[in-house]
Each structure stands twice: as structure tokens, then as C-alpha cells.
What we know:
Layout: H1 3-14, H2 17-26, H3 29-53, H4 61-67
Helix pairs in contact: 1-3
Amino acid sequence: MNQHDKDNLQFLLTASPDVLKDWYDRVDRDDHEYAIELIRTHTAEIIVHNMDQNDDVTDLSEARQVLARFML
């Protein structure tokens, strides 16, 4: 995820409901899909990070392989 993606994700995660609704109404379907992909990627990164923190899990290769589809 590059800085532009991170900035867009930050907007999506911190915007008020009114701002998000205004944004949603002004952009097209491609922008909606891009936003969903950013959120999915971020969610996958959180999951992998949390799995890395779990001492009981030693092999994350399968999880990373599945989540790689969602990485930008």
C-alpha cells in the first residue's frame, strides 16, 4: 500500500458519517470498489499482524497466501 492509498484509507476510517455520505454520493462505482479494497487490505493486514503476535501460531504461510489476494 503506497502513501496515496494510506491517505485514502485514513480518510475512510476517520471521516464523519455525513462526510462519508457526501463522498459516496459524489464518486463513481470504481471509487466505491477501490475504497472497499483498501478496507479489505487493511483488515487483512490487521489479521496477519495479530496472528504474528500469537505465540501459539508458528506457521502463517497459508494465511498469508490467502490474504495476499487482497494486498495492493
